[in-house]
Design brief:
Elements: H1 3-11, E1 21-23, E2 31-32, E3 38-48, H2 59-76, E4 80-90, H3 95-111, E5 115-123, E6 127-137, E7 152-155, H4 161-169, H5 179-183, H6 189-194, E8 201-204, H7 209-220, E9 223-226, H8 228-234, H9 240-245, E10 252-256, E11 271-277, E12 281-283
Parallel strand pairs: 4-5, 9-12
Antiparallel strand pairs: 1-2, 3-6, 4-6, 7-10, 7-11, 8-10, 9-11
Helix pairs in contact: 2-3
């Protein structure tokens, strides 16, 4: 048996597959059975060491985050996660690293009933790519493009918390109590489900609230006005600038028609921070262009 196959069998194969997995790990490709009347929702993200997580981060947190970032995209679409595929590039067949990675990955997978159904492993610089597949009843998937003037803008969680957590881990400014927001984020799957038929537009704010609100505004052909005082009330440590640009917050920003906002379930504690208006872009008093705040892999490249 090859080392690759032994690692797969030891750390990633599970004895019992759910009924909707016709064929999974061990075959050339997965065969899956969506529920009748559902549409498939697919998302993929790649995490690279020293780009998406610090060098030397415990592998259990790398495994958790690798799945979480993808599940957050499904949450933004109102989808229920079902299956995942995992591609690993690793510099060595380090048993302790694989053990930790698998424990973190499967701990989150079990929380959201996600079955790992396939993948690939190669030797190379540390990089993880995960594809997730979810399901949503036909015709009700959420998108970024439905916001209309007069709608209200809401956000879940405490934007900026993950950035403060990362700063703390790196020994910079920040606060230890925010470290879990970076290390083990919890995607807002239940909130996404509750927003079906209620929200006019939804986006996950992993690249920063400012940049992702601009993406939502651009997709909807509208402008968004953010109230700095309301944002300060929900931002981690009251830091509005960090909330706009910190990134790595696997929370949701969404718009709801004004007449429907009372229907938003209280248990999600989402807070109204702005309004959709005619125009373009994102506006907030005291900030020249909040829509440019956030993470961009290619920001420094010549255009």
């Amino acid at each position: 048996m090859s080392t690759e196959q032994r690692l797969i069998d030891k750390y990633f194969r599970r004895d019992n597959s759910p009924d909707d997995v016709v064929a999974g790990i061990g075959d050339d490709a997965a065969v899956l059975r969506p529920a009748p009347g559902n549409e498939l929702v697919a998302a993929v993200d790649t995490l690279a060491e020293a780009v998406h997580f610090p060098r030397g981060l415990a592998s259990r947190f790398v495994g958790w985050r690798a799945l979480a970032v993808n599940l957050s995209d499904l949450a933004a679409m109102g989808a229920e996660p079902s299956w995942a595929l995992l591609s690993l590039s690793v510099p060595a067949a380090d048993e302790s690293w694989f053990s930790g990675f698998a424990s973190g990955f499967f701990r989150l997978a079990e929380e959201y009933d996600v079955a790992l159904v396939g993948g690939d492993t190669v030797r190379g610089p540390l990089s993880i790519s995960v594809t997730v597949l979810g399901q949503v009843p036909a015709g009700v998937a959420l998108t970024r493009s439905g916001a209309r003037p007069g709608d209200r803008l809401f956000v879940s969680g405490n934007p900026g918390a993950a950035a403060l957590g990362l700063q703390s881990l790196q020994g910079l400014a920040g606060n230890e109590r925010y470290q879990p927001a970076f290390l083990q984020p919890h995607p807002r799957i239940a909130l996404g489900r509750a927003l079906r038929g209620l929200a006019s537009a939804v986006i996950d704010i992993s690249d920063g609230l400012g940049m992702d609100c601009k993406r939502l505004a651009d997709a909807s052909g509208v402008a968004i006005d953010i109230d700095p005082e309301r944002l300060a009330g929900v931002a981690a440590a009251g830091d509005v600038a960090n909330a706009l640009s910190g990134g790595d917050d696997y929370e949701l920003a969404f718009t709801v028609p004004a007449a429907q906002r009372s229907k938003l379930p209280a248990q999600f504690a989402a807070v109204e921070i702005g309004e959709v208006c005619h125009g373009r872009g994102v506006n907030m008093p005291g900030f020249d262009d909040p829509g440019l705040s956030g993470y961009d892999h290619f920001r420094n490249e010549d255009t």
